[in-house]
């Protein structure tokens, strides 16, 4: 069994939740989102994040706007929609329940 493959699948499973959480406080462009994830030691690549952002937008959880940049081309800033905020609240609740359950199971002697 390949442990790296299992670890990658675990990260992939929480990536949507993490991206929505990054956008909870303020709108951000893709590089900012990636930097936040990398700073938290959640290793992801652009090729994974771009399609996910598109899917979240198509699902009505995110919107975006273009903003001029002083150091290059315009940037696409993503933000949560009202539906996205509600969805994130539900994910937070589910994460707490799941995390508590896993901790109970994995901490048993």
TrEMBL record:
Q: Which domain of life is it from?
A: Bacteria
Report the InterPro entries cross-referenced here.
Metal_resp_DNA-bind_regulator, Tscrpt_reg_PadR_N, WH-like_DNA-bd_sf, WH_DNA-bd_sf
Q: Which residues form the Transcription regulator PadR N-terminal domain?
A: 19-89
Pfam families tied to this protein: PadR
What Gene3D superfamilies does the database record attribute to this sequence? Winged helix-like DNA-binding domain superfamily/Winged helix DNA-binding domain (1.10.10.10)
Q: Which PANTHER family match?
A: PADR-FAMILY TRANSCRIPTIONAL REGULATOR, TRANSCRIPTIONAL REGULATOR RV3488
Q: What is this protein called?
A: PadR family transcriptional regulator
Instruction: Tell me the organism.
Output: Flavobacterium aureirubrum
